[in-house]
Design a protein that fits this description.
The chain has about 130 residues and is α/β, with parallel strands linked by helices. The chain has a four-stranded parallel β-sheet with strand order 1-2-3-4, with helices on one face. Helix 5 links the parallel strand 3 and strand 4. Helix 3 packs antiparallel against helix 4. The longest helix has 22 residues. The chain is extended and about 50 Å long.
């Protein structure tokens, strides 16, 4: 928190739902605009997992978890100054959840023609992301 008190930021971006736990502390110590970058609509991941399960206990547990995460998302996201999402579909979903802060679509775009590796300089086997 010392960093927040000693520095003047215009924007602080939160990357994902799990760091939203820090929202009250950051808001208390900074006048910056707080932006949430939604990588996913988290509860949808858990709903999809529940759909894949055959075991009724696992299915029930995952559905319960999905509902809880959705409630948490709905509570937390309206506390930000704005939200950025990757797609129009995500924006529509959050708007449908009653999120009333500004939501902007900032898609990820990559032109693969600009990223051609030099195979001669590549070590095999390799791993990157």
């Amino acid at each position: 928190m010392r960093e927040l008190r000693n520095s003047d930021y215009d924007i602080i971006q939160f990357e994902g739902l799990f760091v939203s736990l820090y929202l009250p502390a950051v808001r208390k110590h900074s006048k910056a605009k707080l932006i949430y970058r939604a990588h996913n609509i988290e509860n949808q991941i858990w709903w999809r997992l529940a759909l894949q399960k055959i075991d009724p206990f696992k299915k029930s547990y995952l559905r319960m978890h999905a509902r809880r995460i959705k409630n948490y998302e709905q509570q937390q996201l309206n506390k930000f100054d704005a939200i950025t999402v990757f797609s129009d579909h995500d924006k529509e979903t959050l708007t449908g959840y009653g999120i009333n802060v500004p939501i902007e679509v900032l898609p990820i775009a990559l032109n693969p023609d600009k990223y051609k590796p030099d195979i001669k300089k590549t070590e095999f086997p390799s791993l990157f992301f």
